[in-house]
């Protein structure tokens, strides 16, 4: 881990913290919520040893990267703009892109907006979501799961932050990272996160030191930056209207755990397996469903995920 370099890059009006290691073709890793560059620690070490330059930023709003307070500054255009600026500052034309959770959503948009900068994409957990002209995303989720659904609870600025502040950040990180329940996460206002029981002992793939690192960064930065991605969902829906129906035209490998909460959203399995996913992502070359694996698969199964990435990108 001490071989990983940490730098700050000025891009798109913010200062971005970037972890990197190795030399060779560049792999750009995009993390999710509530995470950091650190979520890719295993892949950085594995894939740099196989001849790649591995680059993992803290995305806008997270860790040691700047975190504007307004959700209006977290649209897909801001985030993709940050990443294009990062590539320019590194002097890199095209990259292998790897995303997980929110990072996967950003990666899909990156491939729609700037496919010229992507050699191939390996996305984890969140499948492509075609633009639906009839309903805004948060409205659709609210209709499906109710007001207690976590994404709906995240919408009101300051509200969930206040709730998080009443719970030890280490406990919060354990609740998020160790959850293996594929049912829709609901957080009733009456009990909130403070009403959650203490999580079970940490699994073998997550250490107290890992939890300490995540918690220390969220204690410093707060959660607002990360939550703003959810608060920009409906705005993204409006802004991306001109790209309706645009296919993902880069080579793709998609990996999901069969206990992943995103895989159990009504309609998602059918979308992935009945041909519609392949229609929207015509260069989908590999589709992997990992048995008994939950949402944070890059940390839960680090060696397997690193090999899945390597086996795909070495073709190009």
UniProtKB/TrEMBL annotation:
GO MF, one example: epoxide hydrolase activity
Role according to the record: Epoxide hydrolase involved in the biosynthesis of cucurbitacin and mogroside tetracyclic triterpene natural products (e.g. siamenoside I and mogrosides IV, V and VI). Cucurbitacins have cytotoxic properties and exhibit deterrent taste as a defense barrier against herbivores. Mogrosides are nonsugar highly oxygenated compounds used as high-intensity zero-calorie sweeteners; they also possess pharmacological properties such as regulating immunity, lowering blood sugar and lipid levels, protecting the liver, and acting as antioxidants and antitumor agents.
Gene3D superfamilies on file: alpha/beta hydrolase
Family: Belongs to the AB hydrolase superfamily. Epoxide hydrolase family.
Keywords in alphabetical order: Hydrolase
Originating species: Hibiscus trionum
Signal peptide feature range: none
Annotated pathway: Secondary metabolite biosynthesis; terpenoid biosynthesis
Name of the featured protein: soluble epoxide hydrolase
Domain AB hydrolase-1: 25-169
């Amino acid at each position: 881990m001490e071989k990983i370099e940490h730098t700050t890059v000025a891009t798109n009006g913010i200062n971005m913290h970037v972890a990197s290691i190795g030399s060779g073709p560049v792999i750009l890793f995009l993390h999710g919520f509530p995470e950091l560059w650190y979520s890719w620690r295993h892949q950085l070490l594995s894939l740099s040893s196989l001849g790649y330059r591995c680059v993992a930023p803290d995305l806008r709003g997270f860790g040691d990267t700047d975190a504007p307070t307004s959700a209006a500054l977290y649209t897909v255009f801001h985030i993709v703009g940050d990443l294009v600026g990062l590539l320019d500052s590194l002097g890199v034309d095209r990259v292998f892109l790897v995303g997980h959770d929110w990072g996967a959503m950003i990666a899909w948009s990156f491939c729609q907006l700037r496919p010229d900068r992507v050699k191939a994409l390996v996305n984890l957990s969140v499948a492509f979501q075609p633009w639906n002209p009839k309903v805004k995303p948060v409205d659709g989720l609210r209709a499906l799961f109710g007001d207690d659904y976590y994404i709906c609870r995240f919408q009101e600025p300051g509200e969930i932050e206040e709730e998080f502040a009443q719970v030890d950040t280490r406990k919060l990180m354990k609740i998020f990272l160790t959850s293996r329940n594929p049912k829709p996460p609901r957080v009733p206002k009456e009990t909130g996160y403070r009403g959650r029981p203490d999580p079970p002992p940490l699994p073998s793939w997550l250490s107290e030191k890992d939890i300490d690192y995540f918690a220390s960064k969220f204690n410093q930065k707060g959660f607002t930056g990360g939550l703003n991605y959810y608060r920009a969902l409906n705005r993204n829906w409006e802004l991306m209207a001109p790209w309706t129906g645009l296919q993902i035209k880069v080579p793709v490998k998609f990996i999901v755990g069969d206990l992943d909460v995103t895989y159990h959203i009504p309609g998602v399995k059918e979308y992935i397996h009945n041909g519609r996913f392949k229609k929207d992502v015509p260069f989908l070359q590999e589709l992997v469903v990992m048995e008994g694996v939950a949402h944070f698969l890059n940390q839960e199964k680090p060696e397997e995920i690193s090999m899945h990435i390597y086996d795909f990108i070495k073709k190009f």
